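Reopening this one. Same input as before:
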Amino acid sequence: MSYVTFVPQVSGSASADAGVFVQGTHVPIPLVEQSGVWICTAGSAMLLEKSYRLSSCDAPLWLVVDEGTLTFSHLSASLPLKRGECVVIPAGTDNCLLDNARDARVLWFTLDGRLAPAFMRQMNALNRVPAKQGMLPSMVVLIRQIVQVLVRHTGTGDASYQLSQLLWGLVAAHSGQSVATSATLSHEIARVVDALRACRYRDSFSLADMAAISRMPMETFRKRFTSELGLPPLAYLQFLKMERAKTLLRDGMSVRMTGAEIGMPDPYHFSKQFKHIVGMSPTAYLKHVGGGDARPSGAPKNDEI
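Same output, byte for byte:
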């Protein structure tokens, strides 16, 4: 079973108050197990010490900062994480440290099943090393719900269907579908979200374009969109463009072609925007996470940008 433990790193003989932890385990019912992927464990912690060593885990681990900030380190890599950001840690990864973590609240879950790698790849999270994972506010809400449901029903399959619904809700939210949490978006906002998806994020919609699709005044639309999805419209569109770009890059498309495919034909502009959103250039991203694992035969290599 993929239990997650946080070991305080306290010098000398000082005693440590590790924090407040809750964690639950899931025993999937046969139908959910046959689906090929399910949530194995989930939990939350209020961290009261500055530094922790994170135990290695035999399943992919998603770690989300729900409150505060911290720095995740693995070997020579250091990832600063703030509220709403996530790092995905491959199974069996050792030497993971959390620093500057005092008063941070974190959420986590692990996956199991023969189709777990396919699920991870669909989410652009199938990495060789720990890496930041793109998160929308609605996805953090879903992960909070996953933790709450699993802890309440720990050690059973009583919530298997609900956990499966929440897990697939993460895929829906990540892919820009209009049903992002347990509630459906309003008709006006859903119409805009569906229009963005229909062109596979090739088009660069302005705020005025989106407001026109919603048939609302522009300022009213902006406030409604931000309220329902947790991000302003243009920031939401940029996020989904970059998630689409990650998928294309991993599939072997060149940086230049990827930029053009998401409506950014200037490769330098695309690389700059990608680095702003993802935290590294497209080429560095592929080197870091081990992309190209499904490169078609004869596909062009990525440009060095």
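So the earlier flakiness isn't reproducible anymore. For the record, The longest strand covers residues 38-47.
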